[in-house]
Amino acid sequence: MARRTVLMRMTTQSISMPRRKLPRPPTATVPWRGDAGQAQGLGWQALVRFSGKLQGEPGAAAALPSLRGLGSSATLRCPKRGARLEETMALKLMRDNLKHLKWILWFVVLVFILLVFVDWGTGRQRGSREGAAIRIGKTSITEQQFIQDLRSTENRMQRLYGKQWSQIRDKINLAEQTAQQLIQRQLLVDEAHRAGLVVSDREIQDQILSYPAFTREDGTFVGDAAYQRILRANQMTPAMFERQIRQDLLIQKLQDVLRQGVLLTDAEVKAEVRRQRESADFDLAMVGLQPFLAKVSASDDEVKAYYAAHKEELKQPEQRVIRYLVVETNTLRRLLPVSDKEIGEYYKDHLDEFREGEKAHAAHILIRIPSNGGAEAEAKAKLLAEQVAKLARKGADFAELAKKYSQDPGSKDKGGDLGWFERGRMVKAFDEAVFSHKPGEIVGPIKSQFGYHIIK
Fold first, then answer.
1. Distances from the Cα of 445 to the Cαs of 100, 135, 185, 386, in angstroms?
2. CATH number for the domain formed by residue range(s) 105-260
3. Closest Cα partner for 138 from 117, 114, 122, 121?
4. What is the pTM of this model?
5. pLDDT in tens, 15-28
6. Pick from 48, 85, 320, 362: most CB atoms within 10 A?
7. What class does CATH assign to 359-455?
């Protein structure tokens, strides 16, 4: 269970914290009331049913396909007949449509990413870190905020990779990755605002009190002076810190809405209405077996013979009686809160599980050995590999040699580049050759089951 780093960048005014332990607020719901026309603008479809009878109300039924609702407690009114419509969350249809929910968020990101204008020079040209480093629609991210996030990301990567970070840092564009994260984060915040989601000051207070650094042993707030001192030690202001918390909670609420929402097509809504209105008339006669049993007789041998002939039909499938408990992730987080201190201790105790293994970046030229060529064919392949290796050691362009001589279709056109891979991923001979030599060396020919490799 992951939790965001406590000390990150934020905005707005600091919030005066009471010197008492505050209870967590209950999970917020978003009730909505209005007519069907107003409901269309909310963007989420809701399965609805009449709480009264449907017969004789065709106008009300016709309004069903256009209804939209948001939240799990929406109540709508039909403009035709004034009939109350109550939202019902259809579990089966939710399962059928849940796979589409993930595309909502990505669609939003892809649409708004086209509107992003990145201006890296604005802040520096003005000679101030308060200038806009990144513009996303009407929102600007200052150079100061960008630098703070860049430092935070670098510190996190350094803790993750340890000593290897100094080698990896020069090979990735950390500034570009940080900028993309800021852009995606702001797009999510903007979408949360458009969806009408808000975060109250009380929610921010409760979130701050969930961090051990800001609470005493009895769970009360450490006080404004200590609060500001801790933030100042991390080069942050209360406004910056609290803005970050507000954004975190907004994004969390948006994700909860997407996970809990239900998407239904007009056809599915109509089908559900038809299903609820269906009725049937039938006659039922109950006939006991006793009168028939008295007229039929069968010997034990006949019963055994019938059983033997119909054994598969009479076989009862193996059964189990089970008990299971399903707990929603959000409920589990609320019932079993985990502090940052506990997360930190778990991380230290399981550091090897979170740290990636040793990696290498290599290119190779493969000279295959014909499977039916015998010793002579293998000797020719080895000779060619040695000649190519000699050219590479004399300074010939390795990528051009790979394009000309390599018989590996997967890397040949890329100059033999195999990208980054962890120790143990390649075949043993190749793996040992790569991780036992220094970067830039020409190694080989090395023989494997694939042929002879010249490695750089």
1. 51, 52, 49, 6
2. 1.10.4030.10
3. 117
4. 0.33
5. 334 333 333 333 32
6. 48
7. alpha beta
